[in-house]
Amino acid sequence: MRGAALLLALVTAPAMAQEQPATAPPMVVVRESEVEVREPVPHGAIGMSTAYRISDAAPQPRRMEFRRRVLDVGAAIGEHPIKHDEVYYVTAGEGVVISDGVEAALEPGMAAYLYDGAVVGIRQVGEEPLSLIVAYPVDPPAAQ
User: Which of 6, 36, 70, 107 is 20 to 30 Å from the Cα of 95, by its Cα?
Assistant: First the structure.
């Protein structure tokens, strides 16, 4: 039985090696200053922020969002349910993240991994703006 499996692997390996992989789209390089937008903080909270929607510059379809957001002093992203896993990574300032009622302090070099189905939010604390990277998957395009 093992010999048959080995023979099958040897016979099919060359054919599999000849298959052409799907062509990936060309890479996209984004200068964040070109995607910078001043706007109110999302999800019904208070304050203003600067959003850098980096992945918006990538053509569709894409499989993830990658953004930077800087919350002004006193600003907060309101609590909201998420339908995917999500990561908040702090690059500057201090914040308090909340997930399903549990709070944790964040500072530069710290990340909060938030889970699908949680109700999450984050607020700036301290004297300087809170800069964070936000990354999460996007829904795959519907099959046609």
Answer: 36
> Does 123 fall in a domain?
yes
**pTM, 2 dp:** 0.80
DSSP assigned state of 43: T
CATH label of the domain that carries residue 33: 2.60.120.10
- Give yes or no for a cis peptide into 61 (omega within 30° of 0): yes
Tens digit of pLDDT per residue, the chain (144 long)?
Answer: 444 443 344 444 555 555 666 788 889 999 999 999 999 999 987 899 999 999 999 888 889 999 999 999 999 999 999 999 999 999 999 999 999 999 999 999 999 999 999 999 999 999 999 999 999 999 776 665
Query: What is the residue range of 30's domain?
Result: 22-137
Tokens 């998957």, residue? 137
Task: Provide the number of structural domains found in the chain.
Answer: 1
The DSSP H or E segment spanning 108 is none
Is residue 3 a part of any domain in this protein? no
